[in-house]
């Protein structure tokens, strides 16, 4: 695909991979192997960005084997690995079991197998099947995409259409019509306050004003703090409306800290 793009757009110097669902470093390495093997016209290829989010994939024979595989990964992480902490932090750089979270697609069918495996490995655990956690993570990931690209109308609409935003279908339709009429991105319409010009839909305008004000505050943190702290501030801001305050939200915070190199977040924060 990279080779085709270079042929279609000769003279291209930079290709930014900012919306992919795999590790960027894997893509760069695969393309480089093609070039080095002489199967492409160019042998000049270099990658730049945050590549620490490499995915590890494994296929086990059964759900029991899978549960034990993940449990042993957690056990190894806690016993042998250390994590990066800010220089001025008093926190321990060793992982704990609280740093780990496992998302299971079908908790009713597979949850018991995971619990039995973790219990067998003497790993403290809590299995919870509340679907709200997945809704919150879905909302958070869409919000991170908005922060990564202000012109990503699809992600903005996904966020604003989410139940957490409190907007109705009619509200979203009006916003979409305004964007089409003004020929502007959703972010620009919200930031410029175009919906304030009509005297109707007062409740909707208040919600949108609150959303964009919070969004602007959170966006300002991006270059000030390291990634885990930034994500914690995003979580606090979008779920509590108080960006910057140290509010502990266990489920989201533990998942984000444990999955800092998770492929979705790597794609969002692949800064050039």
From TrEMBL:
Stored Pfam families: UvrD_C
InterPro entries reported for this sequence: DNA_helicase_UvrD-like_C, DNA_helicase_UvrD/REP, P-loop_NTPase
Protein name per the record: UvrD-like helicase C-terminal domain-containing protein
GO CC annotation: nucleus
GO MF annotations in UniProt: 3'-5' DNA helicase activity; ATP binding; DNA binding; hydrolase activity
Keyword terms, alphabetized: ATP-binding, Helicase, Hydrolase, Nucleotide-binding
UvrD-like helicase C-terminal domain boundaries: 25-272
Gene Ontology BP term (one): recombinational repair
């Amino acid at each position: 695909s990279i080779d085709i793009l270079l042929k279609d757009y000769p003279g291209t110097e930079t290709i930014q991979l900012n919306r992919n669902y795999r590790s960027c470093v894997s893509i760069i390495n695969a393309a480089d192997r093609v070039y080095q093997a002489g199967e492409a016209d160019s042998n000049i290829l270099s990658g730049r960005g945050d590549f620490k989010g490499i995915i590890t994939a494994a296929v086990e024979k059964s759900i029991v084997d899978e549960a034990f595989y993940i449990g042993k990964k957690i056990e190894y992480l806690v016993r042998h690995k250390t994590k990066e902490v800010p220089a001025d932090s008093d926190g321990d750089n060793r992982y704990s079991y609280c740093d780990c979270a496992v998302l299971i697609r079908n908790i009713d069918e597979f949850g018991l197998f995971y619990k039995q495996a973790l219990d067998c490995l003497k790993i403290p655990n809590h299995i919870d099947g509340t679907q709200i956690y997945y809704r919150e993570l879905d909302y958070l990931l869409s919000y991170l995409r908005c922060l990564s690209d202000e012109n990503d109308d699809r992600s903005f609409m996904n966020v604003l259409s989410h139940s957490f935003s409190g907007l109705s279908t009619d509200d979203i339709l009006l916003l979409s019509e305004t964007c089409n009429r003004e020929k502007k991105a959703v972010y620009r319409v919200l930031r410029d306050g175009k919906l304030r010009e009509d005297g109707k839909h007062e409740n909707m305008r208040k919600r949108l004003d609150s959303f964009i004000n919070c969004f602007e505050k959170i966006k300002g943190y991006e270059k000030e703090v390291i990634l885990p702290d930034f994500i914690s501030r995003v979580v606090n801001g979008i779920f509590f409306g108080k960006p910057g305050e140290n509010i502990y939200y266990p489920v989201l915070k533990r998942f984000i800290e444990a999955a800092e190199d998770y492929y979705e977040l790597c794609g969002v924060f692949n800064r050039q």
